[in-house]
Amino acid sequence: MTEPVDAYIKGIHKKFRFYANWLPNAPRALGDVGTLNGKKFERFTTLAALGVTFETRKGDPGQDYAHTSGSSVDLRIKLGGEALPGSTLEVGKAGASVSFASSGAFVFQASAPAQDEIEDQLALEKALLEHPKWKPEWCVITRLVRAERLTVLVSESSNAEVEIEAEANLKVSSVVPLAEAELGLVVKRQKGQVTSLLSAVGTTPLLGLSRMRQSWVDWLLSRDPHLGRAGLDDDAAPPKEPLLEDVQPEE
Fold this sequence. Notes:
Layout: H1 4-16, E1 19-20, E2 32-37, E3 40-46, E4 56-58, E5 65-68, E6 73-78, E7 94-100, E8 106-111, E9 114-118, H2 121-130, E10 139-155, E11 160-166, E12 186-191, E13 194-213, H3 216-221, E14 226-229
């Protein structure tokens, strides 16, 4: 049975081609090194601590990101002064009511996302090939997305519900009404198990992971691996070339 967090990570990857950081507000940076525990990235050191240097290409904030797990989520936004049928939220308060039809259903909203990446990944590949301590199962963050504000809701049970109240009024026209600044969001009612991160500031919710992988020729001849995107699939077979391949989650 798929764990709720795994369903969230796979759903985010399918939409954005990035790993979802878990927990969503865990501090992450370019050059962080770790391993995959199932589908979750767990950091234990950095490239700097291993003596590997790199330069960073920093991106500018872009359009907001919003995604849900489709028909398994019913998200209703309430403005201050409006009544929301079936909700226990105060009429004078703004807020939202979210219903989840299945475990692993999620809501993801990130405002002003900006993407950073390691500038020269060919130089990084060469450095890791020559590094005496580097292990093929290790992953390194070569890309990441920073968000000004982030709201993530992940259901851990079927038929879960959560009602969220806001101190400020919500912007119905916004792509990310639950990830705007100074909303003062709080959970007022919850049914079932839901992991909630509400309008968190300065997070890195999306990660691009790479690791040393073998090409088909190297695999057949038992030669050294090369740097490639870390996938969510099993390691039974080497990846196809090109060596910097995209992440492909298992079904």
